[in-house]
From TrEMBL:
Subcellular location: Membrane
Fatty acid desaturase domain residues: 53-263
Main location: membrane
Protein name listed in UniProt: Acyl-CoA desaturase-like
Transmembrane segments: 27-49, 55-76, 174-194, 200-221
Keyword Transmembrane helix: yes
């Protein structure tokens, strides 16, 4: 089960007007213990997946990883957090099940934290503020109690629309059994039933190993995509265009664009280019399941580049590389 997002501190954090220093916030030992277990088990799972591989197991691992990724990228992120497009009930149910497979907290909680991240990005009100370091933005934010600013400022973010969706209400009510069933029982049951795999082997490979890998792919959006890369749309923010994250996180690495134009369903101006989630949403639109896809006019993108961009492009050399090229 995914470690729960740390809540506000009640006794160990000052409750007066004294400013709370992030480094003084206490650790969440429950989450730390869970992470130690998950990663230790995943290492064992990786050893067996490499030394005793089956092609069926690898295919299942890749397919289930893609499905869980879409539950986060196309579902919790682009559909519910940003309302970048609309989806009919069958697609919403499918994305809810994929999201349960991902085991990264329920849609409401994930979307709430993400909206807070956008509104208060790079401040103490940001749940995974990159200014507190790469590791903190990657996974350390789940190992410490939330800064009080995350709680107080987060209350100013309206999330009432999320609970108007019966699919979200259903998942939130039954999240624990849904996450266990979709995230661990099914990935273990399929290998055991269809090709007589050992239960423990299926659990630590297609269950735990697959889960840990997908966690890190998602976390890279908060860390690497706020760390190194180009800023062709807005040079005044930490969010960057990171091509590696784009591959690993199904098209979520166009992060400078996304933070500049958060309601664009493609999170990029390049359409399908290295953007598997965009392909999926477009395919669902062809099937009539996705509609009202929001995008940004080309002229608006170009004007924004000229006004606030750093002069680079997503796939081109960085500012430093351009400067070296000019010197030579």
């Amino acid at each position: 089960m995914a470690p729960k997002t740390p809540e506000a501190v009640t006794s160990t954090v000052p409750t007066s007007k004294e400013k709370v220093q992030p480094e003084n916030l206490p650790l969440v030992w429950t989450n730390i213990t869970i992470f130690i277990f998950l990663h230790a088990t995943a290492i064992v799972g990786l050893y067996y997946a490499v030394t005793q591989p089956t092609w069926q197991g690898w295919v299942l691992g890749v397919v289930s990883s893609f499905c869980s990724g879409l539950g986060t990228t196309a579902g919790a992120h682009r559909l519910w957090s940003h309302r970048a497009y609309k989806a009919k009930l069958p697609l919403r149910i499918l994305l809810m099940l994929f999201n349960s497979l991902a085991c990264q907290n329920d849609i409401y909680e994930w979307s709430r934290d993400h909206r807070v991240h956008h509104k208060f990005s790079e401040t103490t009100g940001d749940p995974h503020d990159i200014n507190r370091g790469f590791f903190f933005a990657h996974m350390g934010w789940l190992m410490k109690k939330k800064h009080p600013d995350v709680i107080t400022k987060g209350k100013t973010v309206d999330c009432s629309d999320l609970l108007e969706d019966p699919v979200i209400r259903f998942q939130r009510r039954f999240y624990v059994p849904l996450a266990f069933f979709c995230g661990f029982f099914i990935p273990t049951f399929i290998p055991v039933y269809f090709w007589n795999e050992r239960i423990w082997f299926a659990f630590i490979t297609n269950g735990i190993l697959r889960y840990v890998v997908t966690l890190h792919f998602t976390w890279l959006i908060n860390s690497a995509a706020h760390w190194r890369g180009n800023k062709p749309y807005n040079r005044f923010m930490t969010a960057v265009e990171n091509i590696y994250v784009t591959w690993w996180a199904l098209g979520e690495g166009f992060h400078n664009y996304h933070h500049t134009f958060p309601h664009d369903y493609a999170t990029s101006e390049y359409g399908w280019n290295r953007n598997f989630t965009c392909m999926f949403i477009d395919f669902m639109a062809i099937l009539g399941q996705a509609y009202d896809l929001k995008s940004v006019p080309k002229e608006v993108v170009e004007k924004t580049k000229l006004k606030t961009g750093d002069g680079t492009t997503t796939f081109g050399p960085s500012v430093e590389e351009l400067q070296k090229m000019k010197q030579h």
